[in-house]
Amino acid sequence: MGLPAVAPVLRRRLPRLKPFNRLQVIVEHLSMSKTTASSSEVLLEKKGCAGVITMNRPKALNALNISMIRQMYPQLKKWEKDPDTFLIIIKGAGDKAFCAGGDIKAIAEAGRAGEGMPQYFFREEYALNNAIGTCPKPYVALIDGITMGGGVGVSVHGHFRVATEKTVFAMPETAIGLFPDVGGGYFLPRLSGKLGYFLAMTGFRLKGKDVHKAGIATHFIEAEKMAALEKDLTELKSPSKENVADILDSYHKKCQVDQEKEFVLGEHMDKINSLFSANSMEEIVQNLKKDGSPFALKQLETITKMSPTSLKMTLRQLREGASLSLQDVFTMEYRLSQACMGRMCIPDLFCFHGTEWLEDFFKKLLKIRRLIYRTFFEKRGERDLGMQTVVYFSLCPFSKGDVSI
């Protein structure tokens, strides 16, 4: 009976308790790997000849967290050595998403609270991405539904990526003050022409068959055929990579969805290749403004809503990543992740600028551009990721899409 009378007092005090509540959320997130609930966030099963990973957080669009990563990585390594496991399949639970990304909010809040999550989350996530990219056994990602950020990292570096009419691909990090990580510095500059640069700068969403035409997916099938495809793959007898490819090719060739559809960016590829070939963001902005076409002005409007620092950082990331090994890209991206999450970050990384004119902001950044690059890209000594360069087993078909360059 006394609780209603106390409620107004509690409401007045709630704002003061906000920091504690935030810390409590972070602690709960950090302890997830110790809870029984975490075991159901990712399902690791042996089905026939295959090891099957199911990211099992459909209500959260299968967003990737640290407890999931810590279960997936060791199991992937075990299956690599298991003579009875011939391929690995990864998929998302539910009908909306493969994986919509990583839990960036929890990471950022942990960083502000002085917790170590920003250090070990990215280190362990990139280790998982690298394990996928160097996995000697066929790795099949069924990217049905939303596939962004961290979801791209656990799919794009594998041998095979199977998209459907429900697939939505994007790397939207420049809109939130970050950069397209999880190996974006490797696969994006290897797409046709300057398509990867365009996707990284604008966060443009590719949907359905366009994901395949861009060279990101290796195959395209109907969403309703996914279960049958998985069944056929798991029932193979001691399959080789070629046997797996044959099954995927068969489904791809039989697909009737969007057969005549033209690539959504097809008519704009000449402009994309020209406008996004500049050596600096200032030049790209000038190119877009000078072009003046409806397409160019639309991209200019989009870019003005992004973080200028992120754009500059992303452009250099892709230009350098174009000639680096996958492991060296992850090392570079780990440095960037720590700079973004560290307290020495420029405030621009944690806010939106709305319609603020980008060129004016670039002028403000010119004086500190060298400091930005030295801070973000500098080696971190013993704190560096330091991945050993190994053979990249993936087919690396990123530049073999249907896009004309």
What are its keywords?
six-stranded mixed beta sheet; ClpP/crotonase-like_dom_sf; disordered N terminus; ECH_dom; four-stranded mixed beta sheet; single chain; hydrolase; 2-enoyl-CoA Hydratase, Chain A, domain 1; globular; 10 strands; alpha/beta; 10% strand; 405 residues
Question: Secondary structure elements and their pairing?
Answer:
Elements lengths: L2 H28 L11 E6 L2 E6 L10 H16 L5 E6 L4 E3 L4 H9 L4 H17 L5 E5 L2 E3 L1 H4 L6 E4 L4 E3 L13 H4 L7 H8 L3 E2 L1 H5 L5 E2 L5 H9 L6 H14 L14 H7 L5 H11 L2 H10 L4 H14 L4 H16 L16 H9 L2 H9 L28
Parallel strand pairs: 2-3, 3-5, 4-6, 5-7, 6-8, 7-10
Antiparallel strand pairs: 1-2, 8-9
Helix pairs in contact: 1-3, 2-4, 4-15, 7-14, 12-13, 14-15
Keywords: Branched-chain amino acid catabolism, Hydrolase, Mitochondrion
Catalytic activity: 3-hydroxy-2-methylpropanoyl-CoA + H2O = 3-hydroxy-2-methylpropanoate + CoA + H(+)
GO biological process, one term: L-valine catabolic process
Give your account of this protein's structure.
By secondary structure, this protein is α/β, with parallel strands linked by helices. The chain has one domain: 2-enoyl-CoA Hydratase, Chain A, domain 1, CATH 3.90.226.10. The strands form 2 sheets. It has a 6-stranded mixed sheet with strand order 1-2-3-5-7-10, sandwiched between helices. Strands 4-6-8-9 form a 4-stranded mixed sheet. Helix 1 packs across helix 3, helix 7 runs antiparallel to helix 14 and helix 14 runs antiparallel to helix 15. It is globular. The termini are far apart. The N terminus is likely disordered.
